[in-house]
Amino acid sequence: MPTALAISGSPRLNGNTEQLLRRCLDRLATQGIPGELITLAGKTIHGCGACGGCRESKDSTCPGQSGDDFEAIFQAMLRADIIVVGSPVYFGSATPEMMALLDRAGYVAGSNGKLFSRKIGGPIAVARRAGHNFTYAQLLMWYMINDMVVPGSTYWNVALAREPGAVAQDAEGLATVDRFADNLAWLAKRLS
Predict the structure, then answer these.
(1) The pLDDT value given to residue 58
(2) Contact 166, 129 (CB under 8 A)
(3) What is the per-residue pLDDT across 126-152, written as a single tens digit (0 to 9) for each?
(4) Gap between the Cα atoms of 138 and 177, Å rounded
(5) Quick one: which of 30, 139, 181, 192 is 20 to 30 A from 92 by CA?
(6) What is the pLDDT of residue 108?
(7) Based on the number of CB atoms within 10 Å of its own CB, is 3 exposed (0-12), middle (13-18) or buried (19 or more)?
């Protein structure tokens, strides 16, 4: 049975990004795929220090930036068959917390035999007004460089919202995430 992991890069708990990720996980659950949500809110994820320790250690860890919350999240990513990341748009791009996690996870996975290769998933971006297409593309690039499989949807996985809960008013954004979750489930079942 495939399992899913959703990671919210928002520093806000229960914000619009988290709500969309929960919706995605709930939709997957209705199709028999259990999931877990990890939020980066309140966690510390240091950026990659480019020390090269992950290339030298060969033990699927990041020895250069110990003492933060990276390792537990990275291990959850390794266990999952489906990885969905979500970020609000901060000054036209993904949050620094999300990019710190993805940069380090990508380096460690790549240095240890492409550990994310052929896992499936994709990004979700939420914007107040603009920047969601760039943020979506920025996050999508991480999937591509990690040799992952990303299904499409009826539109890009983006939504518009500002105030907490406002994403529930974006009918097209919700429908896009629903179809994305359906495609994730369809693909996961065929690959398992």
Answers:
(1) 67
(2) no
(3) 999 999 999 999 999 999 999 999 999
(4) 18
(5) 181
(6) 93
(7) middle
Integer Cα distance of 105 and 134 in angstroms: 21
As a whole-number percent, the residues of the chain with pLDDT over 70 amount to 99
164-180 average pLDDT score: 97
Q: Exposed/middle/buried for 181, CB within 10 Å: 0-12, 13-18, 19+?
A: buried
**Residue 18, CB half-sphere, CA atoms under 13 Å: how many?**
16
pLDDT of residue 22: 98
Residue-range domains of the chain with CATH: 4-36+73-95+116-191 (3.40.50.360)
Q: In this structure, are residues 138 and 152 in contact, taking their beta carbons and an 8 Å threshold?
A: no
Q: Are 117 and 147 in contact, with CB atoms under 8 Å apart?
A: yes
Q: What is the 3-state secondary structure (H, E, C) of the chain?
A: CCCEEEEECCCCCCCHHHHHHHHHHHHHHCCCCCEEEEECCCCCCCCCCCCCHHHHHCCCCCHHHCCCCHHHHHHHHHHCCEEEEEEECECCECCHHHHHHHHHHHHHHHHCCCCCCCCEEEEEEEECCCCHHHHHHHHHHHHHHCCCECCCCCCCCEEECCCCCHHHHCHHHHHHHHHHHHHHHHHHHHHC
